[in-house]
Each structure stands twice: as structure tokens, then as C-alpha cells.
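Z., the sequence and structure:
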Amino acid sequence: MKRQKILFLIALLITPMILSFIQIESAVKDPIVEVMTPKVIHNGAQAIDWNLEDIMSDTNFTFSSLAGKVVMMDFFATWCGPCIAAMPLLREINDHYSGNSDFVLMSIDLETAAAASETALEAFVSNNNMNWKIFRDTVNMDDYYGIEFIPTLIIFSKTQYVYYSEIGMSGISDLIDMVDDLLALSDTTDPVINEIESDKTSFSVLDNRFQIMANVTDENIRHVGYELEMGGYSDFTDFWVPSTNLVDFEFVIDPATIYEATQLGITNTTVDVLVEDFADRTATENITIDIDNMVDMEHPTVSITDIIETDATFGQNIEVIATITDDLLLVDAAVEILLNGDSYKLDALELVSDDTYSIKYYGLVVEKGDILTVNVTGEDVAGKIAFDELNYSVTASAGISLPIILASTFLAGLIILPIRRIRTRK
């Protein structure tokens, strides 16, 4: 009981001390949310090559030597219950394709030799009747393929691209159908890009986004890629195994990048479209979009128009209001408050009306009479910068001071503990 009282008193003393030093610098703090999301590599990706020894035959194999074969790769560990449960399904698949030299089943043990010796691994393989190729991952395949959970199954095409992946095993009928499709695949036709179009004929620093739409045709599209070139600037995006023949994407280009390109005399940009299928056949086309040249003539203007101060439980809330203008486009604005040698900088200014911007500092630890040096900076699309500075004297009390908090906490502890003692005696 005495120990509990001491811990209770310590908690009362420490908690306000911690809170009194907290300075919240934004109105909303996004909660940290940890989401466990499987990250198995996307379908259509190129397989990694490796050279590993088959545990049972002591023969070395390279993955590239299996080109022309459909490969089913199972990732497992000897301690994994679901992996063990999947072994009968793998045996059934292996038996189904027995004698078919164009199909290879392999299992990859993700354990280190320290975690499971080779003898233990061989015993596991024997006990589970794993009469197919077994390798231990010594080349970090799990990192490349993004294996976070086991068992994980990956099926590769004859051209050694990821055709399908899943965590666990959902059943063998669908897997066998996929393998049969890949074994029978004989794609002799190049992909076709039927049409490329954009929703705009031109873009500019004030209208910096446009959409590209490509209509493509192929039996087994593996990848569609868009690459934009504008002088020394490039941007690209990939679509892996798209579900439709119409593939569209919106490019959004930084206005400052567009302005810099126009100043170098660049008048258009080219978007290249690349289509690849699982048979390693490709098609390419491109489209050109004009850039409207706009000139920034003036520096931006910055003027701090108001400082609004409100009480907070700890410290003060300080709102800075400023007018920032530019003749073409403002691309950046920031506020910095200097107090007793410390700097508090925020750049998430909110446009409240026309050229008026606002930002709030929450719980700034200040005392009445403290001088805040407030700097507001604006930068335009041409890289021209302007700023304004204002010294502001804090007019209100900054909430409950630390000595008062500590004294109040101590007194509260003296009062609460005897009450708890009396209740305990009763």
C-alpha cells in the first residue's frame, strides 16, 4: 500500500511537468495508425535471379535456368503451422503435374541455418513428403518479393514475371487453372496501342494538370507505363496487369518546374506510352502537349495584418494573419516565430479570403510581456521571395505557471493521500 501511495504521488508530480513543456504547433495532429498490410510484390514484376543449392539433391540451380517453365514458388518455415497445413495441397499440385517438364514446384525456407539446421530442415522435408525442389533463402528473396507473412505463394510465367501471388493457399483448383493457362500460353501478337489522347491540348503554371488516356489491346498485358519528359524533368507511372484496356493517368506538375522549363525555351512536353505483355512483346507510342508560356514580372508582397492572442490551458494560442500577393502565382508561404532564441516555424498557411492567409500556434509557452518576433515569407513561381517582420508583445498571462502547477500538485497529494488512508482504515 505504501508503495502504491508513493507511485501515485510521483505520477501527480510528474504528469503536469511533462504537460507544461509540451508545445503543440498545429491545430490538428494526425494519429499514428499502424496498419499491417501485406506487401507482396505486384503481379507483372520481373523475377530476381539467384543461384542456390537444392537441399535434397545438393545440386545448384539458378532461377534463370528455369526460363521457359512455369514456376510455382512456396515460401515457408519449419515452425509455421499454416505452412505445414498447406503441404498436402502442394503435394496434390505436384502430383497433378508429375511428368510435365514445363512445370516446376519449389519451396523456399526463410529460416537461417542458426534457426533451423540443415539436418532439421531435411527431416522436416522428409516428414512432410516434400518431393520437389527445396531451397534455403540466402539471397534475401523475402525482401525483394516483400514477403511479410507465410505461407506465401507466387506463380511465375515462362518469361519469369510474377503472374500471381497470394498469402496462404485459397485452394488448388484456381491455382491449377492459372498454371494450365500459363502452360498453354502462346502469344505471338504484339500489343497494340489503339489510341492516345489528352483531356487538354496545353497546360501552364496556372493549370498544371492534364490527363492521358491510352487504349491498348493484348491477350495478356503485363505492364503499361507512362513517362513524361520536359527538358531535364521527367515523371513516370506504372500500371501492372491493368484490369481494363483503357488506362488513364493524371499528371500533376509542380508549377515552378513548368515555369523553369518555359524560361529555358521549352514549349511542349512528350509523354511516352509503353505496353508490355507476358510474352515479352512490346509496343510504344507518344503524345505531345503544348506549354503556355507565362511570365512573372513582380516580386510577391507580404504584410502582417494582425496577431490574435487567446488563452490556453498551457501557454497561449497565437494566430498570425497576413496578406500575401503575387502577379502570377504564389507557391510557398511560411511563418516563423522567434522567442528567447527558439524558433517555431510553420508552413501550412490557410487561405481564408482572397490574398489573406492565417495560421495558428497552439499552446505556445510564453509569459506576459514576452516579445515575439514574427516573420512571414512568401515565394512566387519564379523563385522571388518577399517577407515582413513584426515584433509583438504578449499581453495576457500564459496560463498556469510551472511553479504553481508543482505547488498545487504537491498540495493535492497531501490532501488526497490522507483521505485514501482514512478510507482504507474504514
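The CA atoms of residues 192 and 217 lie 5 Å apart. Residues 15-38, 419-426 have pLDDT under 50 and may be disordered.

Let me know what you think.
H.
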